[in-house]
Amino acid sequence: MNENYLFNMPYIRSNYDVLHELKSKRTFSFKLIYSKFKRILFGLTLCFNFIILLNNSCFAEAEADTSLSKQLLIKILRIPSVTGQEKELGEYLIKKTQDMGFSTHVFSRTDSSYNFAASLYPLSLNKPNLLFINHIDVVATEDSSLWSNPPFSAAMINDTVWGRGAIDMKGIAAMQLMAANNMLQEARNKDLPYNVTVLFMSGEESGGSKGAKEITENHLDELNAVTVFGEGGVGLRNVLPSKPDKLLFFISTAEKKSLWIRLSLKMRAQGHAAIPSNKNVNKIMFKAISRFEQRKPEIEFSKESKAAFKKVGELNGGYQGFILKHINWIVLRPFRRTILERSPMLLSMVTNTMQLTSIQNPYCAPNKIACQVAAYYDCRLLPSSSRKNFLNNVFFKILNPKIKIDIIEESPGADPSNPNSYFHLMEKAIHENYSGSEVIPILFPATSDNNYFRMKGIPTFGIMPIVLNEELLNTVHGINERLPIANYLKGIDTYTTFLHLLMGNGLIK
Question: Do residues 87 and 96 touch, judged by C-beta distance below 8 A?
Answer without folding.
Answer: no
